[in-house]
Amino acid sequence: TDFAAVAADQLDLTRRANNLQGPSERGSAALVRAIGHGEIVPWYQPIVELRTGRMTGLEALARWEHPSGALDDPGVFIPLAERTNLIVDLDRAVMRRAFLDVSRWRTRHPGLRVSVNLSGRHLDQEDWVDQVRRAAATAELDPSAVTLELTETVRPSGPGLTADTVEEARDVGFQVWFDDFGTGWASLQELVTYPLDGIKIDRSFAAQLGRHVDNTVVRAMSTAAAELGLKVTMEGVETREQAVIARELGCDYGQGYLWSRPLPAARLEALLVTEDGELPVLG
Ligand code: C2E
Ligand code: MG
Ligand code: MG
Ligand code: MG
């Protein structure tokens, strides 16, 4: 059962905390405790359909909420988790919580989707597809509501990420997207190698939209994606102008401060409440 799984994880974490040696590992002891104590929680950032401005999904982003109320910088603790392999436990903790929240929200908003980030290290676990499948089943969340964002600046080295495992994930019903496209390890070649559903163009490209008259790079990425039958999300959209250009260049979805910052579950829930029960139009 899920409780047994949680208890086993807890034991595993405790064992790992006790075995920590060396300065960088000692530095991560606090993070081990935080994961074990449920202090790493998802915040949610809306993903918007550019054509309509309607929220269609959420990305779950890890936040470290200290009991004091203080927030730790994800730009610091996520790289730390990546270096120490704790990212696998962190991904799992965020995913479990996010699946439970979204499963609950979908009773009123059956169209709502959720995207979770999986690091390359997570994908090195040979049974990663089954792990995610079980987390969705436990939360009674339809796998077709889930998008897996394959993050990572380093190319996954293990056996976990192959065309076959991506296919397996899609057979379960998950969508599989490449995150931070254009800056990470994945090249155009990888778009052909793996049977993906979409790409998220890295936010560094959003900042350039409108600065170069022809927006060559983003146009090239979205054209290639379209030819391969992939959907495109532009992340890091901060201005109306960027949203308009992204749409003109063929991007399907947008995500960024223009519409909303990542929000804690309770605030996201408040945003979801609309008079007609539809997903809200954010503009
Ligand atoms: P990402 O998956 O590309 O997530 C988007 C990041 O861009 C988030 O940063 C988000 O807060 C930020 N962002 C969104 N809109 C805007 C905008 O308009 N302007 C700017 N300047 N930034 C924007 P965050 O939350 O700090 O996360 C950073 C990265 O950490 C994520 O990038 C993702 O790669 C990783 N990450 C976050 N949560 C998890 C997790 O649970 N597991 C794993 N493996 N990685 C995670
Ligand atoms: Mg992401
Ligand atoms: Mg991204
Ligand atoms: Mg990014």
TrEMBL record:
Annotated GO MF terms: cyclic-guanylate-specific phosphodiesterase activity
Domain EAL intervals: 24-276
Protein name: EAL domain, c-di-GMP-specific phosphodiesterase class I (Or its enzymatically inactive variant)
Part of the intact protein present: 130 to 412 of 412
